[in-house]
Amino acid sequence: MDKLTVIKIGGNVIDDPNALKRFLMAFAGLAGAKLLVHGGGKIATQVADKLGIQTTMVEGRRITDQPMLDVVTMVYGGLVNKQIVAKLQALDVNAIGLTGADGSTVLAKKRPVKDIDYGMVGDIEEVDSGQIQFFLRQDLTPVFAPITYSAAGELLNTNADTMASAIAVDMAIHDNVTLVYCFEKKGVLKDPTDDNSVINELTPALYAEYKAAGTINKGMIPKLDNAFKALENGVSKVIICHADELAKAVNQGAGTTLRS
Ligand SMILES: Nc1ncnc2c1ncn2[C@@H]1O[C@H](COP(=O)(O)OP(=O)(O)O)[C@@H](O)[C@H]1O
Ligand SMILES: CC(=O)N[C@@H](CCC(=O)OP(=O)(O)O)C(=O)O
C-alpha cells in the first residue's frame, strides 16, 4: 500500500496571506502523495456580507439558500481554489483544482429537511477514490473545494472537514492514509484560552469528557466527530495541528493525535 497524506486547511489560515503562504510552502515540501481539501467559510461570510446576504450557521453548518450557494460556489470553487492552485504551481506542485463535481469525485445528496432546512447543503454519498487515484498517478496534486454535486446536477455546499474525512476514508481502500486537520491553534486545547495546553492524545472517552465540560466546543465538535469517524473507518492516523506545524506533525509529531 502506498502512503497518502490528506490535509485539510481551514478558513482562518486561508484568510491570512502570510499564514497561507507558510502553510503552502510546508505542504509543497511534504514527501509522497498528498492532496488538499480547503475551507474558506470566513471569506464566504465576508463576501456574502458585501453583497448584503446574511450568514446563518447552525451546528457549524451554513444555511445555504440559492443566493448563498452562488456565493460559496464563486468563493470556494473559484477564488480560493484557484488562488491556492496558482500558488502551489509557483512552488512546483502540479495542483489540479476540483470541486466534487469535477471528475465525479464527490457525489452528495441534498440534506433532507427535518427540524432545520439547511437548503443546498450536501451530505456525501460516494467518493470516486479510483478517479482521485488516477489524478495522483498522473503526478497531479488534487486541491478540493468544499462543493459537491447531486445526481440531479445540483451544486451543494459541504463542510470541508466532512469532505476531508470522507475522501480520506475512501482513499484508505487503496492507500495507507494519514489525515491532518490544520488550523490556527496548536491542536485540541485543554484550555481554549491557553495555546500551550495542547492535548497530545485524544481518545473518544476523553473527547466525551471535555465536550461535556464545555472545554471542547463550537467548530471543534464537528471537526472531531469527522476526525474520529475517519479513524474508525480505515484511516491509519489522524492529527489536528497548527498550520505552521504541518511538517513537524507528519514527520515527528505535533498537535493532537487521535487514538481509538
Ligand atoms: N478545546 C478546543 N481547542 C481548540 N480549539 C477549540 C476548542 N474548542 C473550540 N475550539 C474552536 O474550534 C475552532 C476550529 O473550528 P473551525 O472554526 O470550524 O475551524 P476551521 O475553519 O479550521 O475548520 C477554533 O478556532 C476554536 O475557536
Ligand atoms: C455546509 C457548510 O457549512 N459548508 C462550509 C464549507 C466551508 C468550510 O467548511 O470552511 P472552513 O473549514 O473554513 O470552516 C461553509 O460554507 O462554511
Automatic annotation (TrEMBL):
Its EC number is 2.7.2.8. One of its GO terms (molecular function) is acetylglutamate kinase activity. Its main location: cytoplasm. Substrate binds at G40, G41, R62, N157. It is an enzyme of class 2 (transferase). One of its GO terms (cellular component) is cytoplasm. NCBIfam families: argB. This is Acetylglutamate kinase. It comes from Spirosoma telluris.
